[in-house]
Design brief:
alpha/beta; Carbamate kinase; four-stranded mixed β-sheet; 9 helices; globular
Length: 284
């Protein structure tokens, strides 16, 4: 990149840096790139940049592949129903162990890059309260969010720490439940009145033809989502992700974004450039 192009990039980013200074951005990340080694470094670099630019990133992460591997090692065959992991009493301890290990690695990596970060489980300090999810067949220790208490998260943000949260919740019965990370991130974004909710995944965003990146919806109104689901343009694992985004924007978050985490510096390109690289979902 020549000097002129570099200056153009900086000039393009400047109004966005001003606009989002002091704003909360909730970032959900999961999938195969989140493991005991933590989040892919490029994503962390983007988060560090955002923090130094005066924004307040909040990370919610999963860790499905590591959880499945540890379950198999313990003699438990991973099972999913409707995209949700069947979770028995033994599995919930394995999930807690896996997510805690990943959380520590992410926090350590961020600190190594010069950013203050603090790990927290959703089951701690009443952060995520849940009720057992009703389903047939029974999913076991799987919960759905009933309330969010962001007191601790807000304190961390006020001290310019990056909160790194993993999605376990506590029921009224005092038991710990596994909770869908997309749902947890959406609810936290709503509770924090976040400027943006960013959902990082392994596809470009919502595409009319999933095999043709040129059909990517750059902007998608929440009111259009139901029709796209009926037409199966939004299908399978993308449905809960888009629904989490829709819930967020309908309950106060300014915009939601679905990005391909494998695209270098996808977060910065989406937030600090005019065209973006994924799908933004808006209320209307």
């Amino acid at each position: 990149m020549n000097a002129t192009r570099k200056s153009e990039v900086l000039i393009e980013a400047l109004p966005y840096i001003k606009k989002f200074f002091g704003k909360v951005i909730v970032i959900k990340y999961g999938g195969s790139s989140v493991d005991e080694k933590g989040i892919e470094p490029g994503i962390l670099e983007d988060i560090v940049f955002m923090n130094y630019a005066g924004m307040h990133p909040v990370i919610v992460h999963g860790g499905g592949p590591m959880i499945s591997r540890l379950m198999k090692k313990a003699g438990i065959e991973p099972k999913f129903i409707g995209g949700r992991r069947v979770t028995d009493a033994q599995s919930i301890h394995i999930i807690d162990h896996a997510l805690h290990a990943i959380n520590r690695q992410i926090v350590s990596a961020l600190r190594g890059m010069g950013t203050k970060a603090f790990g927290i489980a959703g089951k701690e300090n009443g952060l995520i309260r849940v009720k057992k999810m009703k389903s047939h067949p029974d999913l076991g220790y799987v919960g759905e969010v009933t309330s969010v208490d962001t007191t601790v998260v807000k304190r961390l943000i006020a001290d310019n720490l990056v909160p790194v949260i993993y999605p376990l919740g506590t029921g009224r019965d005092g038991k710990v439940y596994n909770v869908n990370a997309d749902d947890v991130a959406s609810e936290i974004a709503i509770a924090l009145k976040a400027e943006k909710f960013v959902l990082l995944t392994n596809v470009e965003g919502v595409m009319k033809d999933k095999n043709d990146q040129k059909t990517l919806y750059r902007t998608l109104k929440a009111s259009k989502v139901g029709g796209l689901i009926k037409k199966e343009i939004i299908a399978a694992g993308m449905i809960p992700k888009v629904e989490a985004c829709v819930k967020a924007v309908r309950e106060g978050v300014k915009k939601a974004h679905i990005l391909n985490a494998n695209k270098p510096h996808a977060l910065l390109l989406e937030i600090f450039t005019d065209s973006g690289v994924g799908t933004e979902i808006v209320k209307e």
